[in-house]
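Hi P.,

Sorry for the delay on this. The queue was packed all week, but I finally got your sequence through. Input first:
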Amino acid sequence: MTRPFLTALLLAGAGAALALGDDRPATRLADLIEEARLRNPDIKAAEARAQAAAYVPRQVSAYDDPVFSYEAWNAPESFDITRADNNILKLSQKVPFPGKRSSAGTAAERDADVSRREAEMVQLEVIAAVKRAYWDLWLVHENLLVYSRDKDLVERLAHIAEQKYAVGQVSQPDVLRAQVELTRLISRVTTGTLAIDTTRAELAGLLSRDDPGSIGIPEEQPVQARLEQNVEALTELALRQRPEVAAQEASVARFEANRRSARLGYFPDFEFTAERFYNFDRRDGVGGMVSISIPLVYKYKYDAAVGEANARITTAQAELRRLQDRIRREVQQAFLRAKTALLQRDLFQSTHIPQAEQALRASQIGYETGRVDFLSLIDSVRAIESVHLEHFQAEADFEKAHADLERAVGGDVPRDIQQ
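Then the structure:
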């Protein structure tokens, strides 16, 4: 197959779908991604959780509310407080040891950072899923095109077989074999149409659309990309920009702030009280009181809190290392899947498709002239059908692997990755 013919075949998907009765407008991948960002409920929920977490630091770093209290001492049985020996107005405020509330606020800020990074993670996951679903939809459209085109080809071959049978050049089994092959391709066209509906439903779920049928024909086509073997640079980029890494680093910082809070638990808290006395038959006055906690009485409680904080820091650091190892594996696997798909695509374009088309042309001419039997001709039809399907599968596999690679890296990856 020549390069212009292959390009024309790749660009024929939208026109073929319209020819098959699909009048939906074309769908652009960029529009679907933007719609998913705005409508996907997972993204909305993650952003709301991040917003909620951002309000926590101001709450936990603030002092407790001041307390106003009133006391009446030795009031008469009539409860006439004006004749009570003492009417006392109090205003008290609890004050933690310096640094306790700021440490709690720092821990909450790191929690908020974790939630914000988790929202970014969800968005990356959803965008990658949209891209995979989009290329699945493109693939089933292209497969339907292949089946429809081959159905038309077999119809022509069946007509030739009927003409040859009518003049006694072939036997009746050739006509029957043609009808069997035609029935098989009609069945493939029917199931291909159902596969389109299935893929639309998957994409509609990601977009939170009520009507999957509103999703049209994919407009974008696979590009002729090249990936240079520089997976190490991609891995380093992933380790720098993956939101999971930033989230786990924030988690480590959160537990470090918790440890500082636990160590401050050994120090006392205070409570300051101002009082105003209104006395019966005596002069009025003012008073004050300072209270202090004694944490050393239950020192083992704070020892346990510090031990827990140290253990959680060790756990978070180990999880960070595990995450980094997983990111390296994900980048490597996605990169190799993309390279494999590109190699398969190039092999189909340069070898398999031209050979299969040449074999089909030779078999068709040979059958018309009586030098090739009908089984050989059908084998050639099935061979070219298979290579076209596998070629489109390789194109879709690359696009989906590239989407997974961008997810693994944590951002856009240029189609030409230079050394």
